[in-house]
Write a structure and sequence with these properties.
Strand content: 15-25%
Strand order of the largest sheet: 10-9-6-7-8-11
Bound molecules: 5'-O-[(R)-(carboxyoxy)(hydroxy)phosphoryl]adenosine, zinc ion
Shape: globular
Number of helices: 13
Number of strands: 11
Distance between the termini: 52 Å
Length: about 400
């Protein structure tokens, strides 16, 4: 770290009452670091699930102004903020770096330039404080954060929807997932971000600082989805895969037509923007609900989940969306599943989920590395054992379910 050397306050190891600490009685504590995309996050979490300290720097507004994430810009911003963010999380926690049990950091998947900043910083930190290192898969962290908040036992069904992913999987253990389906093209968050950009929402007086997904949710509340006709993606495919790029093309065609009709000028906001937002949000929600419904039927048929009361966990940035949650609740209630979603703050990227994933791995004894020489980041990384061929073969038909939201 040289001049960037982390000057974490080295607190003396004393308990709150000033007595020497009893290390064997203390819960284990992990520092988590997240830099896989455009959020610099850090948190200190103990093994009881208590968040001792946290900090987050979001690059969202800068990327919104630029019209999308430019990786070298994301890298520069991570470099500028990582020291302060980690320092703040550790300071707030009141835990001295020497008291940390381990450091956990996202190493896959994500933007290479962004992942590199978190990894390089973490490796220097563990070298300085002689701590074990726990490499984290970003999507595993999204999947497991619910277990910090609620008692959700393995196995459970999980839908992960973010700016980079759309995954349906059975979580059988901390690092053991059965992948039932994934997106064939783009992720739902990416689609919502692109639609928002195409609608020039950065010029909208209320939505200009919101992410695309948040802006679409906000506008959809005052729109009428029935005014814009969109067709469901992949309705003929009896599997659990997703596709959103066709939907985006449909929306683009509609926008071009409306722009012509309204004598549109570059950067203007269309008068029907709320209706478009409502229709897009509904189509995304219905697509996610349909594939999740099929995954539930598949799990029932194959006996993959416990009875009674199996759980569906929904996480990732797009899972913050209330409308999508309601659509999924209709599906879970019709099938005797409980629905578990982290609060929005823990659905979008953060350091807490990385620290908690570190705790989960520590408890399970998975990948707690004392020699981190061979650690590399991986921009692309598979998630779990691919079971989508078996899902396709089962070709399950999903009964009609009215999504009255
Ligand atoms: O998980 P996340 O923070 O980062 C990735 O790992 O990608 O997800 C970010 C994505 C963005 O595409 C953003 O537009 C979307 O989550 N998002 C939402 C909402 N809030 C954030 N999508 C729909 N509704 C929301 N309320
Ligand atoms: Zn994420």
């Amino acid at each position: 770290m040289g001049t960037h050397c982390l000057r974490l306050r080295a607190l003396r190891c004393v308990s709150a009452r000033g007595l020497p600490a009893q290390p064997q009685c203390k819960p284990r504590v992990v520092l988590g670091i997240e830099t896989s995309c455009d959020d610099t996050g850090a948190a200190v979490v103990d093994e009881t699930g208590k968040i001792l300290g946290e900090a987050l720097y979001s690059q969202k507004e800068i990327h919104l102004k630029a019209g999308g994430i430019i990786p070298p810009v994301a890298q520069r911003l991570h470099k500028e903020h990582i020291e302060r963010v980690v320092q703040e999380a550790v300071d707030n926690s009141g835990v001295s770096p020497c008291e940390l049990t381990a450091v956990a950091t996202t190493v896959k998947p994500g933007l290479a330039l962004s992942l590199g900043v978190g990894l390089e910083y973490s490796l220097k930190l563990i070298e300085q404080y002689k701590k074990p290192f726990i490499p984290i898969h970003h999507m595993e962290a999204h999947a497991l954060i619910i277990r910090m908040l609620h008692l959700v036992e393995f196995p459970f069904l999980v839908l992960l929807v973010s700016g980079g992913h759309s995954l349906l999987a059975v979580a059988r253990g901390v690092s053991d997932f059965l992948l039932l389906g994934q997106t064939l093209d783009e992720a739902p968050g990416d689609t919502l971000d692109k639609v928002a950009r195409r609608l020039s929402l950065r010029n909208h007086p209320t939505c200009c600082t919101m992410s695309g997904g948040e802006a679409i949710e906000y506008l959809a509340k005052i729109g009428n989805r029935l005014h814009v006709e969109l067709t469901q993606p992949m309705s003929q495919h009896l599997d659990c895969d997703f596709s959103f790029s066709g939907l985006r093309n449909q929306v683009n065609q509609i926008i071009i037509k409306k722009e012509r009709e309204e004598g549109f000028q570059e950067g203007q906001i269309l008068s029907c923007v709320n209706d478009i937002a409502a229709a897009v949000q509904h189509t995304v929600a219905a697509h996610l609900a349909k594939r999740t419904h099929r995954a539930i039927l598949f799990c029932k048929k194959e006996g993959l989940l416990p009875q009674p009361k199996p759980a569906l966990v929904v996480s990732g940035g797009v899972a913050s969306n209330e409308y999508i949650r309601k659509a999924l609740r209709i599906v879970t209630e019709a099938n005797g599943f409980s629905l578990r979603c982290p609060p929005p703050k823990l659905c979008t990227d953060n350091g807490i989920m990385i620290a908690w994933n570190g705790i989960e791995r520590l408890r399970a004894g998975i990948d707690v590395l004392h020699n981190s020489k061979a650690i590399r980041y991986e921009p692309k990384a598979p998630f779990g054992i691919n079971f989508s061929e078996q899902v396709k073969k089962a070709a399950l038909r999903v009964p009609y379910l009215k999504l009255k939201i």
